[in-house]
Amino acid sequence: MTRPICLQVYISSELSSLIRKAAKAKGISMSEWVRALLANACAEDDLASRLDASIERISRRSVFLMVGVDALLAGHPDHALRGRAHQAYVRKCKELGLTTAAGEGGSDEA
């Protein structure tokens, strides 16, 4: 078993009192409470970085899909289909309470 490393921090007496009460409510020592809090914070930071990477990947795929669908609509024999799809998109966004930014959905309007 490795020897624990001491980490020393300076906190106010008010914060110390809050930590003492929180640890007592959980039935653990202040050290255990702080150790668990630090471990959770590190785990959440890792989760946040993975979430950011996932959001970026989803955003890239969404842009690819948007461009591909818009290209298919632009090349469709029914030239009015593309405009109707854009109008349906705007209606659906309003229905869902979402705002549309200029240029979203492949619109030619600025």
Primary descriptors:
mainly alpha; elongated; 110 residues; 3 helices
Could you please describe the fold and organization of this structure?
The chain is 69% helix and 0% strand. By secondary structure, the protein is an all-alpha fold. It has 3 helices and no strands. The mean pLDDT is 86. The chain has helices spanning 13-26, 30-74, 80-96.
What's the number of extended β-strand segments? 0
Order of helices and strands: HHH
Number of helices: 3
Radius of gyration: 26 Å
- The backbone outline, from C-alpha atoms, is elongated
Give the termini distance in whole angstroms: 65 Å
Portion of residues in beta strands equals under 5%
- Structural class designation: mainly alpha
Largest sheet: none
- Mean of the pLDDT scores? 86
State the low-pLDDT regions, or none: none
| Helix fraction bin | 55-70%
